[in-house]
Amino acid sequence: MFAVVVLHGELAVPYTRNPPQRGGIPLRGEAQGPISQGMVLTAGSHAAQARELRQGLTAATVSDVPRAPWERLARASPDDMPPSCSQREVLGHFFRSMSAQPTTLTTNRRPRKSLGQHFLVDPRVANRIVAAADLGIGDTVLEIGPGNGVLTRRLAERAGRVVAVELDQRLAAELPGRLGMPENLEVHHGDARTVAIEDLVGLGNPYKMIANLPYYAAAPIIRRFLESEQSPDVMVVMVQREVGEAMTAKPGAMTLMSVATQFYAKASVVAQVPARAFRPPPKVASTVVKLSVLDTPAVAVEDMARFFALVRAGFAAPRKQLRNSLAQGTGARAEAVSATLDDAGIDETRRPATLTIAEWGALYAAWPPDAPRSRAS
User: Fold this and answer.
1) Domains of the chain (ranges plus CATH)?
2) 279 by DSSP, 3-state: which?
3) Do the beta carbons of residue 75 and residue 11 sit within 8 Å?
4) What is the pLDDT of residues 93-136, one digit of tens each?
């Protein structure tokens, strides 16, 4: 015999024998009339009983509480199965209807396209993000873009203090109540690209930052916090996969973003996240990146603006040899570039993507401020 249990108006875990109890109500018995909470539907081998089960599955409602992985079953249509089918066929349809996606956390808040909102609904991804931050009761966490609170709830359970910054005013107002008014949670309506960091976490106080960033704002937010005089100890951020790959790239695949990130922090990949982990699913995949912020930059430079101007010039033509790319980006004469690269101990035929952070530092140290300019510049 096969049984389907209906809890809170939605289909839950299937049991074949000795179903458990929920709320003191035995989940056992024949389906009589409409589907209701606590009911067990049984399917025998009779075609009529199978058809009755099909109709019951279609009538089941899906609530807003977290659903089981096979939530698609609640949307199964009798048209998906022949008018007369055996118990084996009913079971086959049931398991084919099960979604391969992980359990999701659903919300009733419609995302706003204008803000690039894609709400994280996969609890497994949320757990991995929180675990990567290695939180304790003494930690202060700054969360950027809490949305519906999937991450916020877990942060409040582990950290001593959680400060959330949300650009969507309605979400910011609703979040504390949605999570049961946790005492260690503060929610601020504001833009992480401009809000005063010291006003959020306190001047000089250490903190960790966790963020599910909208793709359009990821780069400026990450740069702002890395370059801040009050930068976080750790950042765990969700970004577009291509951005995550650039942030964590090794020599041979480095980009300007790779240098800009690894100049300030040690970068590593926490998880690759498929589009189905969000609602609505974005058109691209995502990556969770952990940034362990360095106490001092990876290389010592006197003028950071000049250092990054040189790096940017070096990537002016990333497919060309470094000698030609630097000459194009800086306007310096090719022979002067060759001499400077030789002084820095760098082969002029290499590509910009192959240089390490330390080699960019050596090039900066060797680069003359008054390098001869080419006639074309």
Assistant:
1) 2-97 (no CATH), 113-293 (3.40.50.150), 304-366 (1.10.8.100)
2) strand
3) no
4) 444 444 334 433 444 555 444 445 578 889 999 999 999 999 99
